[in-house]
Structure formats: C-alpha cells, structure tokens
Automatic annotation (TrEMBL):
Pfam families according to UniProt: His_Phos_1
Gene3D superfamilies cross-referenced by the UniProt entry: Phosphoglycerate mutase-like
Xref: SUPFAM superfamilies: Phosphoglycerate mutase-like (SSF53254)
InterPro entries listed in its UniProt record: His_Pase_superF_clade-1, His_PPase_superfam, PGM_Phosphatase
Protein name per UniProt: Histidine phosphatase family protein
Domain of life: Bacteria
C-alpha cells in the first residue's frame, strides 16, 4: 500500500440563496459565510486550496488561500450536483412527488435536465485521484457526500447520515494504489 495522504473537504459558507436547490446556480456567499470558512480553516495545516469553480466556493477559497499564503486552484469536478430545471428553486416550487422520487433514487429519477448521482460520483472520484497531500478542497455538500462514497465505500444512503452544514470541514486520510482505502479523521461543524 502506498503512503497515505491527508486532505480536508470544506463546504462553502452560507450563500445568498440558502434554502434553494443550488447546483450549478452561481450565487455569492454571504460575508458571514466567508468569515465562517476562514475561521474553520484557521487551525488546518494546508499546502494548497482547491475549489469548485462556482462563486460560493471560490470566494471562500480565495480568502483561505490568502490567509494561509498557499496556492489556489479551481476544479469544476468539485461542483455540486446539477439540479437542471429545478436549479435555483426552493423545494416548495418543485413537484413534491418528483422531488421525493429524486431523493429516493437520484440515479433513476434525476431532476429534469439535471445530473444523475452516478455522474457526480464519477467526477468526484476522478478528482480525488489527483488530490495532493495537504489539500483543502472548498466544495459543496453533494460533492462531499460523493467523496465519502468514493473514498470510504459508503453507499449513497449512508452518506446522507452525515450532517454537513455550511463551513464544516471533513478531514480524510487516503491510501491509494491497488487496494485503496480511506479513514475519516474528523468532521468539524
């Protein structure tokens, strides 16, 4: 087995459109959301920051990278699941039966014009393969859940048992190679 790497996954701070299905909708993060992320990252030993290319992640990642004086990179594979025609809408604006079917089976009942869970999982798994030791990845709750499935072997339903509030940090240790493995080091709300 190869030497392990440590990485941190952080959910972006609270966005201006909190409470909506924000997949590819690109909205700003609230100033308090940026402050919460900076505070959560303060005690982390990080060598670089990588962010989803959506503004709510980029704004938080930019501030953290400046605080830690480390490089910042953007990677669209860390985006949230694309909710298609539902994107940017509140759950109350979406057909309740269709939304329930999606939560029960996001691969078999994806949002109209949206992304399947398996597509999100594949792109996050690919992004994990290239993550460097000491990285902080500022991303979204869906991508963090996909990382738990890809790295730790949880099934999709198990990944939903994790509470991932805004600005939380999930720290993982990954072993890559022929027999990949992962360990959760910490989950800080």
């Amino acid at each position: 087995m190869t030497a392990p790497i440590d990485l941190h996954l952080m959910r972006h701070g609270e966005p201006a459109l909190a409470g909506r299905l924000l997949g590819s909708t690109d909205c700003e993060v609230l100033p308090d959301g940026v402050r919460a992320c900076r505070s959560a990252a303060a005690g982390l030993a990080i060598r670089q920051v990588v962010a989803s290319d959506l503004r709510r992640s980029v704004d938080c990642a930019t501030a953290i990278a400046a605080d830690h004086e480390v490089p910042l990179g953007l990677d669209g594979r860390w985006r949230e699941l694309d909710f298609g025609h539902w994107d940017g809408r509140s759950p109350e604006e979406v057909d309740a039966a269709a939304l329930r079917a999606f939560w029960d089976d996001p691969d078999g009942a994806p949002p109209p014009g949206g992304e399947r869970w398996s597509t999100l999982l594949a792109r996050v798994a690919q992004a994990l393969e290239g993550v460097a030791d000491g990285s902080l990845i500022v991303t979204h709750a869906g991508a963090m859940r996909a990382a738990l499935v890809a790295a730790c072997g949880f099934d999709r339903r198990q990944s939903w048992a994790f509470d991932l509030p805004y600005a939380c940090v999930l720290s993982l240790r990954l072993w890559r190679g022929e027999a990949p493995a992962a360990q959760i080091l910490a989950l800080r709300p």
